[in-house]
Amino acid sequence: MDKIPFTKDGLEKLRQELIHLEKVVRPNNIRAIEEARSHGDLSENAEYHAAKDKQSFIAGRINELKSVIARSEIIEVEEGPPDRIVFGCTVLLYNLKTDEEIAYQLLGPYESDPENGKISVTSPLGQALIGKEAGEEVKAKTPGGIREYEIVEIR
Fold first, then answer.
1. How far apart, in whole angstroms, are the C-alpha atoms of residue 62 and residue 6?
2. What pLDDT, on a 0 to 100 scale, did the predictor assign at position 48?
3. How many CB atoms lie within 10 A of CB 132?
4. What is the residue range of 135's domain?
């Protein structure tokens, strides 16, 4: 079973989501099912079917979170300027084709949020960056094509 890397904060967010699902969302859903049952004929009761569908989704998400948390591994993010790109650091990149700079923090797959500058170490770009130093050029084969960057700074 492969370990899933997390920052301490990222794993805590997943644990809080699990607690919320188990203590708030699931009990509310059970009440919704009971209420929908009280309305009579279940074969044509849209509320009942929607609540049952939601129950399946909730159960699936709870199982997924438990599995991820069981396989999680907290990686301590080191303070201070690293000389090489490692998990948790933020990297300032210069796109060689578009002449734009962009910063990404390298995190685990469950913490990634590219829209907010957080990418997974398992993504094509994340894999291309790990272990590199400032000043190096990297090529990453992404779904949108090959991207070429120069590493400007590692924080």
1. 18
2. 93
3. 16
4. 90-154
The verdict on residue 80 lying in a domain is no
What confidence tens digit (pLDDT) does each residue in 44-83 have?
Answer: 889 999 999 999 999 999 999 999 999 999 998 877 667 8
Last residue of a domain, one of 74, 103, 136: 74
| Calpha distance 142→139 (Å, rounded) | 9
For residues 2-38, b (16+ Cβ closer than 10 Å) or e, as one string?
Answer: eebbbbeebbeebeeebeebeeebbeebeebbeebee
Tell me the two tokens of residue 78: 């080191």
Whether residue 82 is contained in a domain is answered as no
Boundary of a domain, candidates 74, 98, 123: 74
User: Is the pTM above the cut of 0.85?
Assistant: no
Mean pLDDT computed over every residue of the chain: 93
